[in-house]
Amino acid sequence: MLALLLAAVPPAPFVLPLSNGLYLVLDEALHVRRVAATPQQAEADLQAWTTGRDIYTSLCSRCHGADGADRSYAGGNVKPINGLGRRYSEDELLERTERPGTVDLSNLDARLRHALAVYVSGL
Ligand code: HEC
Question: Residue of the nearest CA to atom 29 in ligand 1?
Answer without folding.
Answer: 97
